[in-house]
Amino acid sequence: MAGSVLSPLILHGKAASPNEQIRIALIGCRNMGFGDLKNAIKQPGVVCVALCDVDEQILNSRCSEVEKLQGKRPETYSDFRKVIDNKNIDAVIIGTPDHWHCLPFVYACQAGKEIYVEKPLANSIAECDLMVKAARKYQRIVQVGQQQRSGPHWIQAMEHIHAGKIGALRKVNIWSNFNYGIGPLATADTPVPAGVDFNRWLGPAPQRSFNTTRFHGSWRMFWDYGGGLMTDWGVHLIDIALWAKDITTMPLSVTASGGNFAFPDHAHETFDTMNVSYQLKDYLINWEHTAGTQNGPYGRSYGLAFIGNDATLVIDRNGWELFPEWDEQKKQPKVPAMPKQSGGESHELHMKNFLECIKSRKDPACTIENGSLVARYAHAANIALRTDSRLVWDEATHQFKDNAAANALITPVYRHPWVLPVV
Ligand SMILES: NC(=O)c1ccc[n+]([C@@H]2O[C@H](COP(=O)([O-])OP(=O)(O)OC[C@H]3O[C@@H](n4cnc5c(N)ncnc54)[C@H](O)[C@@H]3O)[C@@H](O)[C@H]2O)c1
What we know:
The protein is an alpha/beta fold and 423 residues long. The protein has helices spanning 8-11, 32-41, 56-70, 80-85, 102-110, 125-137, 152-162, 198-202, 228-232, 234-244, 347-360, 368-386, 404-407, and strands at residues 22-27, 46-52, 75-77, 91-94, 114-117, 142-144, 169-176, 253-259, 273-279, 284-290, 302-308, 311-316, 319-324, 326-327, 332-333, 341-342, 393-394, 399-400. The strands form four sheets. Strands 8-9-10-7-11-12-13-16 form an eight-stranded mixed sheet, covered by helices on one side. Strands 3-2-1-4-5-6 form a six-stranded parallel sheet, with helices on both faces. Strands 14-15 form a two-stranded antiparallel ribbon. α5 links the parallel β4 (91-94) and β5. α2 (32-41) packs across α11 (347-360). The longest helix has 19 residues, at 368-386. The radius of gyration is 22 Å and the shape is globular. Nicotinamide-adenine-dinucleotide is lined by residues 27-33, 52-55, 58, 80, 95-98, 100, 118-119, 145, 147, 200-201, 203, 216-217, 232.
């Protein structure tokens, strides 16, 4: 089994590379993973030595692109276990669909690789728990791809809230409206495209025939591989809601309502319409999404509105702004007005932070615990609606209290020969 032999270097928690160069590999090359890789090899001292994908066409074209970018052709693999077993690789980027994060991640931990893993951390609560255990047991440097954690305007807004500048924070409203959340138009199953190892793409997920609507990109809208907008955007945005109050625990309860109300000719199982409420001790996190639309509050299709006693702070990737409350007695705003603060994408900063942490051995901006906690929040919401339940999490057992139907959705059943790893 990949990674069953631990080198002494791993036990000391050090990077495996004998020199300063970081030799990186990408598993899952089509979209986000490749964006991550490009950001990595832009940095000095980083070289891509291997690519892995189960779609030959993607693998070959990405390989040529990497060769053009860095002047050196990486090795190519279709089996990620060969990447893990390759001793000349220091770090891996995991850019596979969500159902394929956990296994490569745990094997990579066991083999002493550092890991940039895309979000959501995994496609189930049990896998998230396992991945935290593996990362800490094998002392790996892990960055989870919730890149907002490295974004200057997100950091600045969090500092503003932490400094009490919107007053006591009691509630956050989060919305996420995207057309893609309804999936593509439904189509009939077809033969597997040439050059695709579909059995390997399915991996631990149940066996089924090939359908393009459940494949590249649109797998997100099917429970076997993803959790729809709730997990895809939920982990990005709910992560900020947790950061604002430095929350490290599951909510007291989760309730969810909604369903699949629209676009029956589109291919999706995940909910197109959904409202979720997370009850915490002194804080309410409200989530809503309406897939198939792109409008939302404050003229933003997605965002967060942090409601403090003295002001509301509204933020998305483009920036943030403040809406002060009015003080009736003093006849003035409760906090000074501020100009809009501009934002931007933070993928490259997030990758740079990961690479710096490989050298410093510090925890990166988005820790495995951050990634795990928010993925569990998002999965809990889907489970609440799938089982029509108000869910209460029991930290002692890592199960929901008195709810067998919900607990049955915590751990995925892996398809033979894949087995959920034991850490
Ligand atoms: N951080 C962000 O802003 C952001 C944005 C988009 C996607 N993502 C995340 O990135 C991940 C990938 O999403 P995507 O949009 O790139 O998906 P995608 O379907 O476009 O690409 C996934 C790639 O993984 C490959 N793959 C599947 N199984 C494999 C296996 N066993 N071994 C090797 N390769 C395999 C596929 O062939 C495909 O090339 C997801 O977890 C997604 O949530 C993050």
